[in-house]
Automatic annotation (TrEMBL):
It comes from Periconia macrospinosa. This is Small EDRK-rich factor-like N-terminal domain-containing protein. Coiled coil: none annotated. Residues 1-37 form the Small EDRK-rich factor-like N-terminal domain. It comes from the Eukaryota. Residues 1-31, 44-63 are annotated as: Disordered.
Length: 63
């Protein structure tokens, strides 16, 4: 009956590993939409800054 104990130990180990894994997405639909909009706003600001630098000749680059 050692086989049953081995199976039980493997099951416990697997459950522990699954509990430690991060879930894909814990946000609700509205939270996800807000996060997406915030990210888009940041990217639009970066793009505008890059275009402004490009328009003035690209002399002042931020490092």
């Amino acid at each position: 009956m050692a086989r049953g104990n081995q199976r039980e130990k493997a099951r416990e180990k697997n459950l522990k590993a699954q509990a430690g894994q991060k879930s894909k997405n814990g946000m609700s639909g509205t939270e996800f939409a807000k996060a997406k909009e915030d990210t888009a706003a940041i990217m639009r600001a970066k793009q505008a800054a890059a275009e402004a630098r490009k328009a003035e000749g690209g002399a002042s680059k931020k490092k």
